[in-house]
Structure formats: structure tokens, C-alpha cells
Design goal:
Blueprint (H helix, E strand, L loop, with lengths): L2 H20 L21 H12 L13 H14 L9 H7 L11 H15 L4 H16 L7 H5 L6 H4 L9 H11 L10 E3 L7 H4 L3 E5 L2 E4 L1
Antiparallel strand pairs: 1-3, 2-3
Helix pairs in contact: 5-6, 5-9, 6-9
């Protein structure tokens, strides 16, 4: 194998790797990026999960802020004991029960109601009322989760996350039902059980979304952890 062929082969392999790891989901999130604490994660949130599980007599390892097999097993035990879906991932519902959560709930000011109603109307137009409340609940759950922005506007306008913000749907008239759904979501009603993702399986074949643990299905949307 001559040197030019070797160099070309190395370049092709590197390019293929970069394409693979940078492929985007429908919401702009890297397909291989885990926003929750899960196996292989590092950081303060992982350390807080480990410390809390340790204090509850469920985790017996050292608090290393690395999410390894011991942490995953402890999270599974906690989820089983708490009646949560046993995924081994520290999702919103798990973090909330552990007391490891992010910012507070935004108030139900008219400005917040209208902003939340706008994204609900854009993303869930034609969905049943419960499905519209559920989309609002996903926004609220993201605010509470430390891996997402901690404000209502920050979550809605987060770059690449909601296609309706940039495809024109966000500027369409808001339905009265979406305004009511926004008020319910801001009041803490959550038909999803803690979801932070939703998608229509008939409209996307995105591998990242299809791999998420499904918490419930309402109308045409799956709501996932």
C-alpha cells in the first residue's frame, strides 16, 4: 500500500467519523449526545445523584461524579423502589424524586401564558387538548431539568430544538385551546409523567428520538424521557 493511498484512507475514515458524530436530530441535538445523566456521563449532576443515593443507602460506591455501572445499578434500584420506569437513566422524574433539580417554575403572567401558548399551538395544532397540555408540560419539565435552559424563553428559543420556531408555524395565530393548555401546564399539570421530549413517529425516523424511553402516547405524539 503506497503512502498516498494510506493518507487517503485515513482521511476518509476520519471524515466518516466526524460525519457520524455530528449528525443532527430534528431538534438540532447531536444524535449521540445524552442530555440526561446516564452511563458514561460526568459532572456535578452525577455527583449530586450519587451523593443522594448514597445518603439513602442505595449507592455504595465513591462519589466520583462519573456515571458508571454502580451508579446505573443504584438508579435502577431507586426507580424500582419508587415505582418509576426502570431505565437506569436519571431522567426528570428520577431527579425530581431525588431532589436534584434545576430552576423554579415560571409564574403564570400573561406574557408567559402567551409565549407558552404560541409554542403549544405551533407544535400541537390539531392534537387533542391533553396532547396540547402535554407539549406545554415538556417545556416546563425542560426548565426544571439542569441539562436545559432554566427559563421559559430560553427553552423555547434554544437553538435548533423546536422546528416550529423557525419554519413559520410559531408566527401563526394561537388557538384559544392552546392558551388554556398553557395555563394548565404553568399550573403544574403534566399528563406525560415527566417527559422532556416528544415527537410524531409518523413524521420522523430520527434514531435519537425513537430510542428514548416512552412514558406515554397522546394523540399523534410520543412523550419520552
Amino acid at each position: 500500500m503506497n503512502s498516498f493511498f494510506k493518507i487517503g484512507l485515513v482521511f476518509l475514515i476520519a471524515a466518516a467519523f466526524l460525519i457520524g458524530v455530528s449528525r443532527k436530530t430534528d431538534f438540532g441535538r447531536d444524535e449521540y449526545t445524552e442530555v440526561y445523566s446516564g452511563y458514561g456521563s460526568r459532572g456535578h449532576e452525577v455527583g449530586a445523584v450519587q451523593q443522594t443515593l448514597k445518603e439513602n443507602g442505595i449507592f455504595f460506591g465513591e462519589v466520583t461524579s462519573f456515571y458508571g455501572t454502580q451508579t446505573e445499578a443504584a438508579v435502577r434500584r431507586f426507580q424500582q423502589q419508587s415505582g418509576l420506569p426502570v431505565t437506569g437513566i436519571a431522567d426528570t422524574a428520577t431527579l425530581n424524586l431525588l431532589g436534584v433539580s434545576g430552576a423554579g417554575v415560571p409564574d403564570a403572567s400573561e406574557r408567559n401564558v402567551q409565549l407558552l401558548a404560541r409554542i403549544i399551538s405551533a407544535e400541537a395544532r390539531g392534537e387533542p387538548y391533553a396532547g396540547q397540555v402535554a407539549v406545554g408540560a415538556v417545556i416546563m419539565n425542560r426548565i426544571a431539568h439542569p441539562s436545559f435552559p432554566d427559563t421559559l424563553a430560553g427553552v423555547i428559543y434554544q437553538s435548533g430544538e423546536f422546528s416550529a420556531v423557525w419554519n413559520g408555524q410559531f408566527e401563526q395565530p394561537v388557538s384559544p385551546a392552546s392558551v388554556s393548555a398553557a395555563r394548565d401546564a404553568l399550573a403544574g399539570i403534566d399528563p406525560t409523567g415527566g417527559a422532556v421530549y416528544f415527537f410524531n413517529p409518523r413524521k420522523t425516523n430520527n434514531a435519537f428520538l425513537h430510542a428514548r424511553p416512552v412514558l406515554t402516547t397522546i394523540g399523534g405524539h410520543r412523550f419520552c424521557a
